[in-house]
Amino acid sequence: MTIEEALVSLLRAIPDVASIAGGRVMPAGSRGLARPNVVYQRLSTRRDWTNDGPTRAPRTTVQVGCWADRLEVALAIAAAVRIALDGFNGTVNGLVIDAIFLDDENTAPESKSAGQEEGIKGVLLDFNVHYQE
């Protein structure tokens, strides 16, 4: 199981995310998603070595975007994600997650398509995820 698959399992299990966004938890760049939705992408992965070889304990930064037609809905989803993931540790479908820490949270610039009066509202959360391979 990849860290992305484990995070999708965690995100879909959050009651407030499920009730607001339904099953719409997809990789960033997915096209035609109904809103509200949650998207994710891996921003970076750092791997350490010792004299004995790789530690097999990567530190990955994952960005979770919470998107909706109204900012208050995006903020509600983001709050649910933050509360559930920040400080999490445990095993998800066999993958040991040592810790998840929220590193950054910000409101995304409004995204408008041509002809739209109102743009899409979003909140971006960057999480540092420490896990075992």
Task: Give your account of this protein's structure.
By secondary structure, this protein is of the alpha+beta class. It contains three helices and eight strands. The chain has a six-stranded mixed sheet with strand order 1-2-5-8-7-6. A two-stranded antiparallel sheet has the order 3-4. Helix 2 packs antiparallel against helix 3. The longest helix is centred in the middle third of the chain and has 15 residues, at 71-85. The radius of gyration is 16 Å and the shape is elongated. The termini are close together. The mean pLDDT is 92.
Share of β-strand residues: 35-45%
How far do the termini sit from each other?
9 Å
Q: What is the alpha-carbon Rg in Å?
A: 16 Å
Spatial arrangement of strands, main beta sheet: 1-2-5-8-7-6
Short synopsis of the structure:
With 133 residues, this protein is α+β, with helices and mostly antiparallel strands.
